[in-house]
Amino acid sequence: KSTVLVPLLKRPPPPVPEAEFPLRVQFVSDSVPMEAIAPPFEVLAFPDRAAALGWFLPTDIRSLAGSDDVLVALHEHVARMADRLRLVGISAFYDEQKSVGSATIWGCGVAEFILGREGGDRHLTDLDHIAELLAAATLGRQCDPAHVLRTLDDLITSSDERSEASMRRIDSDSLAVQITTIHSAKGLEYPIVMIPFGFKPRANVRNPLSYTGPDGQRTVDIASSVGWDAGCQQPGDETTRDNQVARKEWAMMDIEGDELRLLYVALTRAVHRVELWWASTLRATNSSLGRILLDRDGASPIENTPVRFEAKMTKTGRPSTGINPVRPPYQAMSETDVVAQIGRLANESNNTIEIVQLPAHLDAPVWSSRIPAPADELHTAAVTPGGRAGSFSWNRWSFSRLGAQLEAAEPAEFDSGGHDEPVNPADDLAFGPASAIDGSASAPAAALADVAGGTRFGTFVHAVLEHVDFSSPDLENHVRAVVVEHSIREGLAIAVDPVVKGLVAALRTPLGPLFDQLSLSRIPTTDRLDELTFDLPLIAGRPNSGFSAGLIGETLIDTLSPDDPMRPFAAQLAGEMATLDISGWMHGSIDAVVRAPGASGDRYFVIDYKTNRLHPTGSPDPLAAYRPDRLIPAMEHSRYPLQALIYIVATHRYLRWRLGSAYSPEHHLGGVGYLFVRGMVGPDTPSVGGVPHGVCCWKPAAAAVLAVDQLFATGSRP
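Request: output the structure for the sequence above.
Response:
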């Protein structure tokens, strides 16, 4: 018998079998069975016959050449294999082929067949590796055999021998050093076992004490710290007193018993040799290994000397109430006595124990190179004012961190879900007295107007909206259930009714002309992506490179239309961020990206929920503060247009990735909606120019989004 093997992911030309030669050709690659079950126009001239010479359908070549029945049965079985692959995908298909017998004329699975041959472990490891690569490349989905075959061809073509994914794996870890816990080693054997920390003393006892008393009863002392005294178990014998000292010693004995049992497991795992370390550290003699080595005379049996108790004595030598524990003598042995005892044990072990004594001090190893070290002076990295080495601009930036640099404040730990909202419970964002704002006396009541604000409430509302099905037919009860669940989880005492009423009203509020008056309650969960987290590389994530954040504002000035409502903010941004250099990554989490139908197809919008209180506390007309024209200065005050711009650039990159060549920013980018939920009171929410109160919509020009995207990617403006 002859065997031909080829390297991993390298497929040879198909063999041409001849009946008179009993030759079986086996391939490490699983491409031949893929070619057999693929459509005819994708495969070899004789795919079934070729597959019969491999590992998946091993067939005697004489029966294949001498009977059409075998070929027909083989062809039918290959068809069933193809159907199964289409149904379950490559990963499950491969697992089935490994373990399940193929048919009566083949009789065994792939794993059994391969392992029965010379080098089976090596070949099966390679086959597992290829199957794993195929499963990863097909994303674990159902797939057609022809698609799997093309994927394998792509892997062969694009294989990089230096990449970790395509490096050949070891077929067995029997020669590798394995680091394991003693618990997980139970029942296993290893050629050589090393126990480096057996000399460590047992753990200290912790309350509540758990012990087995002299009467054999298992006890958990839930009042361990009280120091209660149950008296003497034998009247008049203080050494039998059941007090806190005795109970602590009993608990320590139980711990030592556990440690001894673990040490027994460790010492009995080796087939050939055990390497055991001993160091005379503090309390090493108290360890379980200390008892094994020292609680004996030379190599005599272990004495298992227990802790005993003696009655306390007064200064005059009279018996007193209470006990003192007396430790076994071996626990007080000096280092000299320890070394002598271990030496006697080794000498009397009939050469089964060897001692290697290490010097107290070892010179540190010095690595040398064949190439002389350069004589250039080593320069240290510059330290920034913040106290760290390297460039300050290289960072994991976010909207919150950018704002914190301007305000000289600590950035939020997370840039999502209400963390960018004011900390002050009153929100400190009331822009002028209510009398300066034109209100409507007939405006609906704002249920959330007097609900406490701040970061914690904002985070709570974001969590609720993330888990609410906006299109639920029983929206109010559904929102109520989610509000109650999250308030209990967060330990937040709130008035449930106004929060539920206010959130339901916000969900039913039309979002204005940009959204074709669509409300959130008309957006199903299938058209909504919550908390889209992103990390955008700035200048491709290259260190020691950066650009001025003020360029973001300058780019907007160049690309926004003259009548864009955020154009004044762009000028503000260009000035206040001119001296702030940024590089590294831009991180964030978008509250929601929603998909809505448009006249020429689907559009995608960025949604951000805001619970900021814009009206003065106790205002008779709180809705007036949420007029669309009043939301612009509120947005600028908190620099929310910058956040919106970062979010829409992230959405642009996400859609470019997911939609591919069909993506068009002019068509697919619908814009941004910042929803101040306190001002959204339902279908009857007052509006100005068709834009309801509480809704701030912005659609930057596609040219502006593309220009900022280029700035983030290259550090330069178009």
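The first helix runs from residue 31 to 37.
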